[in-house]
Predict the structure.
Amino acid sequence: MKLGAFAGIAAVCATSLVGSGGCSSPRASSPRLAAERGVAPQKGGEDDSGPYEVDPSWPQPLSSELTWGRTSSIFAESPNRIFVLQSGMVPMAWKRLEGERLKGSTWAGGMPHRPSTQATHCASTLTWGKGPFHCEIGVDGKMVDSLVDQMSDPPGNRIEGARWEHVLMVFDGQGRLVETWDQYKSLFGHPHQLVINPYDPERHVWVIDAGSDQIFKFTNDGKKLVMTLGENRVPGNDRTHFNGPTSIAFLPSGEFYLTDGYKNARVVKFSKDGQYIMEWGKPGKGPGEFNTVHGISIDANGRVYVSDRANSRIQIFDLNGKYIDEWRDIRFPVYHAISKDQHFWLSDGTNNKILKYDLNGQLLYSWGTFGERPGDFWCVHHFAVDSDGNLYTAEVFGGRAQKFRPRKGADPNTLIGPLVSPGSLGL
């Protein structure tokens, strides 16, 4: 991912309804809806966050000097227990360039700052430059958990003051930090996704780490690591090794699919106890071929949707990997999930929009605005919905999580609604 692909992008018609002939808002303040509901229409405004209103106080700050790094995943187990996965803490002065201008442009919404993806754990096998970068060894002989700047000169200089901590956190509904799983921080190099298998009565927590090339399964309370797949920072393309794994999908039987897709180009199926079953995919642009396999979900009919990110498409397969169809011209499909009413929701990291499709690939609705203000987006990498209908987003370039509440009077067809747990069979 190159910075130039994202800098200076502004969302256009962020709240337009497809087929409406223009930009119309789902808010009650739009003239049509206002008239229907007997309220005065609002004058002005751009309705940046579509059918939602952002909660600018969620989450509450963790530090006055440090801010979040690359924020990759968010999972709402309940309205009062929200998991967040991010890549360490960086100094605000580093992220904000100490008042300097970002090379090439400034961008909508406020002061320019470095993208959070520029800060990488030194031991990540997934660094975007010449990495993995050298890791410092302390006087005790152990690796120093430092963060490095991928765009420094030379690449990989240590970011002074950064800390590899608060990588896996849990917040309550008011945005208060209630758990930090830093006892496991040394396991991770490029934490990519966190999910809970909805068919698992014990609610185990799964973390896919693209930096260590491993997949971890923890007890729900974080007290025990119960399964590990892959070998720590030993990349491979066989039954027991991975190279940049990204996402996971579950079946009611406990079997699961893993997208092994940053450097490999495959989907791998496992038994519930982690035994290899089968796989499909290879590098390329044809049917069943991939370039950055980034996400996976399954609908109620057992169709498997895979984001082929660098090929700008979604490919669809049956449960055994047989190619069925594809949806093209989706610029940068970062994350997708299927709602219980069987619609396909996707975040596009280039347009910085949330998009709604039917299961035939027809675009129904979109909203989203590029920027750094509360409610804006800079590459939503993951989103989740709690049982109260609140939407949560995680931004890898913006380096933050956000919470959105449904607007009063919003058209229910524009709200994401209950999601099938990320990746699981949509039943």
About this structure: The domain at 3-414 is CATH 2.120.10.30 (Neuraminidase). The longest helix spans residues 31-37.
